[in-house]
Amino acid sequence: MTTGLEVKTIEFNGDTIQTTQNIDGCIYVGASLVCDNVGLTKGQKQRQITNLQKDEVLKKGCCKFAIGVFDQNNETLGINIDYLPLWLAKIRITPKMKQDNPALATKLVNYQLNVKDVLSNIYIHKENPQSQNSMTQSDLVTAIMDMSKILCDFIQSNTKTKRYSSPMFPAWLSKVKPKIDEIRTYYYPDDAKYTRTYSLLFSEFSNTYDKDYLSQIVDDFCFNNGYEQAYTMDVVSHNEEARTLMETVIDNLLDTTIDNEEEIIKEESA
Known about the structure:
The chain has a 5-stranded antiparallel sheet. The chain contains 12 helices and 5 strands.
């Protein structure tokens, strides 16, 4: 546990960043505040903090700080700024996150490309943060385009190995498939690929539980296993809690289907 350290509050592109330097000269930044600054929700932040501590590489750059260092009321997690760009680069922005917060991607790229150098210069070269933390719109657009090209090239070259591929019917999915087939037959009898059927299940799931739950467990699965993409139903198959919740959604839909069919039969018999 680290105590008795001086904390510097640094301005970076309009945000406040808290940093400290330990006796070995390593510079740490408060991980929670970085998540807040880039625009993550409370749930997304908690998941990223958890991922940070589980990752085999990133956890080597983590350090817990006592009450009064980064937070006056709680212990907090700091990350060595040498590991900061790697951590930020592993934060996957889902389409839903981008829809809810369009500025998130731009801000995250800015942090990925610049924040480590800014903090290093302040500690090592004693430079004025005001001269380091500005980035013109043109520079930022160029940086984003360069980063996008790198990511696109990487994804294209790794597509075959980076998408999780499961057995066609994992054990759990095989068990619930007859029920899913009944739902498909009732709502979308021509849905040969189950696309609309699964969309209905996911929609009902989001309406019943946390709307970000499914996207978050997919993000966590990909992060923890080194995949770029995974099908939602495959990830659910590997998550005991998610399986239980999804079975409840399936059963509820099936009950509604049966009730509707019984009502139709009654009307036709009347």
